[in-house]
DNA sequence: GCTATACCCTAGCGTATTAGTAGAGATTAA
DNA sequence: TTAATCTCTACTAATACGCTAGGGTATAGC
C-alpha cells in the first residue's frame, strides 16, 4: 500500500497538470478539488517544491504551478520522494539498498529472487508512466 | 516493502519445502537455519498452521511440516495472510476493497488507473510463483 | 507415572510511522 | 495597510511493527 500522502501528492500533480502548464493554482483550490486536508497539502506541496516538481509564487496572487512538464514526471519519482523505496525488500532497493540481517548469501536467497521479479514488474510501470500518461489514460500499456 | 514477518513466513516455508514433504522440523531448527527469532517464529508458524499451509505434531518428537505441496503454495497467498492486501491502494484490493475517502468517481481516477496496472503486474508474479518455483529458481519467468 | 521436549496461546512493550493539526512567520498585490 | 498567500517548525493521537515474556498443554521415552 502506498501512503495517503503519496496519493495526495500524485493527485495534486494531476490537478496542476490539468490546469495547464504555467497555470497556477492556490492550495485551497487543489485541496478542495481533490478533498485533501489543506494544511497537510501545504506540507506536501513544499516537499514537491524542494524536489523541483513544482514552483510557487508567494503573496497575494500566489499559488503553485508545475515546474517540470507532465510528460517528465514519473509516478516512481514521486513515490520515492514521498514514501521512500519502491522495492519490496531493502536488499532490492535502488535508492536505499540495505542487506537483510537474516540473509547470509544474497545471491541464492529464494525469497529475494521472487521479489526481484516483483520489483522489476512494478518499476516497469511506475518508472514508465508519467503524469501526462495518467491524464491521457495511457502510458506503457500492456 | 513487505513486513519482516512475511519474509520470515516465506523463509520458513522454504525451509520446510527443502526438508522434503512429510519431513518435520522443530521450530528451533528453522529458527537457526533462517536466523529468525524463535518466539516470533512460533507465532508465525501458528498462523501458517491455522491457515492450513503447515501442520504440526506436539510433544517430545514433534515439529512442523508442510501440509500443502510446495507447488501449491503461492507467494501471494502467504503475503495476504500475513501482511494483508497486496494491492497498492485500498480501492484496488481483491480481499479487502475499500473506497478511497477522497475519490469521488473511481472509474476515472487517474491515480487508480496507474496503480491498477501496478497491481496487475505484481499479482502476475506473486500469484503465479509457488514455493516450489522459488526453490527451483523458476516460475512464470519473463 | 514422571519428566523433558516439543507446540499452543495471550499479553505486553518500545519504537517508528502515519496522518494529520496548530500556530506563527514571511511575502506580495491591491 | 491589509488581506491573501506561501513557508516553516513543532506537536500529537492512533496505529503498526517486531519482537519478548511467560505461561499452558500434549506426548515420547524412561
TrEMBL record, chains A, B:
Keyword Cell membrane belongs to the record? no
Q: Name one Pfam family in it.
A: Rrf2
The organism's superkingdom is given as Bacteria
User: Do the record's keywords include DNA-binding?
Assistant: yes
Record InterPro entries: Tscrpt_reg_Rrf2, WH-like_DNA-bd_sf, WH_DNA-bd_sf
What are the coiled-coil residue ranges?
Answer: none
Q: Which UniProt keywords apply?
A: DNA-binding
Q: Which Gene3D superfamilies match?
A: Winged helix-like DNA-binding domain superfamily/Winged helix DNA-binding domain
The transmembrane segments are none
The protein here is known as: Rrf2 family transcriptional regulator
Species per Swiss-Prot/TrEMBL record: Devosia algicola
